Amino acid sequence: xxxxxxxxxxxxxxxxxxxxxxxxxxxxxxxxxxxxxxxxxxxxxxxxxxxxxxxxxxxxxxxxxxxxxxxxxxxxxxxxxxxxxxxxxxxxxxxxxxxxxxxxxxxxxxxxxxxxxxxxxxxxxxxxxxxxxxxxxxxxxxxxxxxxxxxxxxxxxxxxxxxxxxxxxxxxxxxxxxxxxxxxxxxxxxxxxxxxxxxxxxxxxxxxxxxxxxxxxxxxxxxxxxxxxxxxxxxxxxxxxxxxxxxxxxxxxxxxxxxxxxxxxxxxxxxxxxxxxxxxxxxxxxxxxxxxxxxxxxxxxxxxxxxxxxxxxxxxxxxxxxxxxxxxxxxxxxxxxxxxxxxxxxxxxxxxxxxxxxxxxxxxxxxxxxxxxxxxxxxxxxxxxxxxxxxxxxxxxxxxxxxxxxxxxxxxxxxxxxxxxxxxxxxxxxxxxxxxxxxxxxxxxxxxxxxxxxxx
Length: 456
Description:
This protein is an alpha/beta fold. The chain contains 19 helices and ten strands. The protein has four domains: about 5-80, DnaA, N-terminal domain (GMP Synthetase, Chain A, domain 3); about 130-275, P-loop containing nucleotide triphosphate hydrolases (Rossmann fold); about 280-345, Helicase, Ruva Protein, domain 3 (Orthogonal Bundle), CATH 1.10.8; about 355-455, DnaA protein, C-terminal DNA-binding domain (Chromosomal Replication Initiator Protein Dnaa, Chain: A). It has helices at about 5-15, 15-25, 45-65, 130-140, 160-170, 185-195, 200-205, 225-240, 260-265, 280-295, 300-310, 315-330, 335-340, 355-365, 370-375, 380-395, 400-410, 415-430, 445-455; strands at about 30-35, 35-40, 70-75, 150, 180, 210-215, 245-250, 270-275, 435, 440. The longest helix is centred in the N-terminal third of the chain and has 21 residues, at about 45-65.
């Protein structure tokens, strides 16, 4: 094994293949020349970002592999010598970089009704890793997990994931055998087919396929004729062992009006929820979009956008587009102060920016517990109830994802936060009582006392 291969393999083992795919994709090349290991990124922005985040990790790996004498240099690809083979210290070429294993779209060709979808590599994190893992398994064995149903709020990446899957399948099956469309398009095409003799052709197009992907399933509600046609289409494809993939904002059982039989079909495969991307994922999406546009943006400005713009990819992309235009007009990087002023209308500015730490402080004050107890493993009601209320308030007043809230309150799993949110919601509906230092009160009253502490 060459030196470069050993370094790369060690890095994959330490950070995982998914993260390696994100940061060291095929646009990053490695070249060992003499006593210096060069990493070439597509632009100065990416090179600086790799250096800032991964230089310490790579130095540790070099030391572990007894190559601490090597120097690291992060450069722009345009500065790379004409011969771009990776060479070790003996001058022998290494193996070419391994092919990516992520679900990044195989082609930039995208559906015309989604002009911005598919432009970014799929960013994988706590909020979508289960759905992505299911998609990878489905790609390896089409039809074994069918239908795959992905649900989550707007901007959580459902359509992006579905289109990434679609592009992968299109490269594997015959033309026209992998179909992607929205429920609205399915409805429109069906109604058009009823005019004249178009119905047989419509059914052939949507039933004689290997893969059928339909986005925004909830659009079918209230459209009885379309739902019946869709129901028969689903049954036909399931009997044939074909792959079905659907998405909606909520799970199948929560979509009222689809009918119990159709809901049962939707839920018979695998149902996966996705959340809005957390801070780290949003930051990576922002960096990737800057790279796609070929622009450099001050890191402080990017962090501001990710933290203060509404937390989904579309809003972040829109803010970066604004930054790009402003920088073109001035011919220079947008400063933090100018961005704060020029992008003010894009920021959701509450009367007071409430942080999780503010909520933690308020809950501790109202319930007479300290912060260590709130983050501990204690299961006593006097601790667990305030902890759950704090998680519920964090979801209400901050943009933090379930995973971020769980990490803050004692490194808990995101499922724990989801459960806490549901428990508190149930308490509110049933007007349950909780214990505070001076007696008992309704949950709603306790929440109001907490809210008063952070000035809302």
